[in-house]
Amino acid sequence: MKRRPLLAGNWKMHTTVMDACELAAEIGKCSAGLEDRDVIIAPPYTVLSEVAHVLQGSNVLVASQNICWEDKGAFTGEISPTMLKSAGGTAALIGHSERRQIFHEDHALINQRVVGALRFGLIPIFCIGETLEERESDKTFEIIEEQIREGLAGVSIDDMKKMVVAYEPVWAIGTGKTASKEQAQEVHAFIRALLEKMFEKDIADSTRILYGGSVKPDNVDELMAQPDIDGALVGGAALNAESFCRIINFT
Ligand code: PEP
User: Fold this and answer.
1) How many angstroms separate the alpha carbon of residue 235 from the centre of ligand 1?
2) Going by CA atoms, what residue is nearest to atom 4 of ligand 1?
3) Which structural domains are found in the chain, ordered by start?
4) 214 lines ligand 1 (CB under 6 A)
């Protein structure tokens, strides 16, 4: 099955309003005319509305870097799906390794976020990945399976049609160490087989699985050539217009 490539940029805790608008404008320009792929950027909340405004009419979608499951209420520090949509966002990163590791978000919380995002019609970009210690002790598949089973608990086949999965080995995020194309492909194939076991073949075949972890202009093409890699989630290189534009224009 042919899956539409998706290139996503995570700006993390970077950019002032002015930086963000300039960067978004550059990305809007270099993605014009790219009809065969989707581009998403996830700016910080403080600039999300401005970025969405700059990108209005372009084919770049805007995502948040996390999302609450409730519509409104006493959840200091969180934003709701309704708030995100009103600011121009349509997708949300959930379960990023920095949320898991630094902010101790666990499977149950991440699952609540996934289910909430789906309830409000957002596209969840559900992130998973093993640490170096887990890889070195041969636990990669076990950890990935646990993250997927727990994170997607209660998600229906119908909801899975919106889901995007991002495999991001923690040891490759922001370290300059990319998983080799073989290492990435092996885990992507494992994830697809697991989705088939948990849901059905059509879901496994149609779900986009992104790779994230030091994706750069010089490794994007070989990663994207792998049969089960359907896109990239990019951190550092998404903050530079030239690099990100090269990445979204992968061949
Ligand atoms: C990320 O933050 O999701 C990421 C993959 O970062 P980097 O590309 O900098 O490794």
Assistant:
1) 3
2) 235
3) 6-248 (3.20.20.70)
4) yes
Q: Are 171 and 132 in contact (CB under 8 A)?
A: yes
Whether 66 is in the pocket of ligand 1, judged by its Cβ within 6 Å, is no
Nearest Cα residue to atom 2 of ligand 1: 235
Ligand 1 neighbour 179 (Cβ under 6 A): no
- pLDDT for 1 beyond 80: no
**Ligand 1 within 6 A of 235 CB?**
yes
Q: Residue 122: what are its φ and ψ, rounded to 5°?
A: -85, 160
Distance 170 CA to ligand 1 centre (A): 9
pLDDT of residue 122: 98
Q: Which residues contact residue 109 at a Cβ distance below 8 angstroms, ignoring those fewer than 6 apart?
A: none
Query: Mean pLDDT across the stretch 177-205?
Result: 96
Q: Which of 50, 96, 130, 188 is catalytic?
A: 96
Instruction: Please tell me the distance from the alpha carbon of residue 24 to that of residue 121, in angstroms, as a whole number.
Output: 24
Read off the pLDDT band of 174 (50, 70, 90). Answer: confident
What are the DSSP E strand ranges found in the chain?
A: 6-10, 38-42, 60-64, 91-94, 123-128, 164-167, 208-212, 231-234
Is the pLDDT assigned to residue 67 strictly greater than 80? yes
Confidence of residue 123 (pLDDT cuts 50, 70, 90): very high
Q: Which two tokens stand for residue 148?
A: 């997927």
